Amino acid sequence: MFIIVASGERILLTPQLIAGVRTLHLDQVPVLSAVTAVLSNLVSNVPAVLVIKPFIGSLHDHDRAWLVVAMASTLAGNFTLLGSIANLIVAQRAAGGGVAIGFWDYFRVGAPLTFITLAIGTLWLWL
To answer: What pTM did the predictor assign?
Structure first.
């Protein structure tokens, strides 16, 4: 995974792509939080952080940006049962104890919880 991301970073980060990402205004906390959360659910949280890493250096407040990325990538893992390996481990352990946690059962709780915690974290880091 790390080799693929590093290779992609070297090959795909063209000046046009970098200019395109700059139009997203990642220096705004809500935007960076949303982009990180969506990307974390598409490619998982660790690759998402690695993909976002090259763009953090050009942002005005590096420390806050890293806190936003850490918060959003972590909380985004709660969105679905597949969002984090920890979710799968808990579901497997629960199944061993006779408690079935299905994808949609988890999603009914995970999706609202993710939106609420991301909103709180974003507001906290934004204000």
So the answer is: 0.82
